[in-house]
Amino acid sequence: MIDVSIENFESEVIEASMHTPILVDFWAPWCGPCRTLGPILEKLEVAYNGRFKLVKIDSDQEQQLAGMFGVRSIPTCVLMSQGQPVDGFMGALPEGQIREFLDKHLPEAGPDDVPQELEQEVLTQVDDNDLQARLEKLQQAVTDKPEDEKARFDYIKLLLEMGLEDDAKVAFAPVIALAGTSQRLNALKVWMDALDLVQLAGDANARIQALDAAIASNKRDFAARFERAQILLAHNQWTAAMDELLEILMRDRCWNDDLARKAYVAILDIIEPAKPPVAEGQIPPEDPTVASYRRRLSSVVLS
Questions:
Q1: Is 254 a known active-site residue?
Q2: CATH number for the domain formed by residue range(s) 2-124
Q3: pLDDT, tens only, 180-194
């Protein structure tokens, strides 16, 4: 796996794909589903033993490349061959579906292409980077201790990252009444409400264009701005959604019973990664994106 920028894109992607298929992973450091998908892709690159090469592109840092590929949500993966995009997928798919995607497009493995011992080791490895294993561990934690809010939050969040919205709603149902008093549970509700909105809206791109037109004619059309933020949220465009919510807050901090601020805080709760362990008495470092957007919120709300 290598990181690619605009400077080495031609050599590491276009030219390299003339010899070996290249799987391009568009990601960002703040993206939860990206952190889920990344280890799976790296594991499969090893398992496929040279049948494809994995490259990663930070869509925040390399917006020109993201624009070239029409990336609208992350993670987005594009398979390149002979200098051209062949196929792609969006979201943190389970390992089995990614294998099906790869097997459909990659040349068949020869008898010497995949060392049996290595393949068996990769297939049987179960650790915290294994999506299904993490899901099962969290599900068991919720079953063993239903009142454990953190375990339930992590479980539902992972279900949503995997696109298992119906399962997430089932897991959320026992605590839905607590969303009004729990900031983390409310964050999940905000996320699921946005996903429901997008499902009802149909063509998200067409709806965004209509909302953009409404906002262009009236900068204080906060309902249009909020719906736009919800659509961005549903497509994992977290920072873009918060930017839109800030546009509301800068003009009316208390609009609609503080709805924009609550949604903004919800996104921060969703994207904040788990704190790394530190020595007693030390403060764990804060995620730079979360820290930056917290400061921006404070500067608007307290101004």
A1: no
A2: 3.40.30.10
A3: 999 999 999 999 999
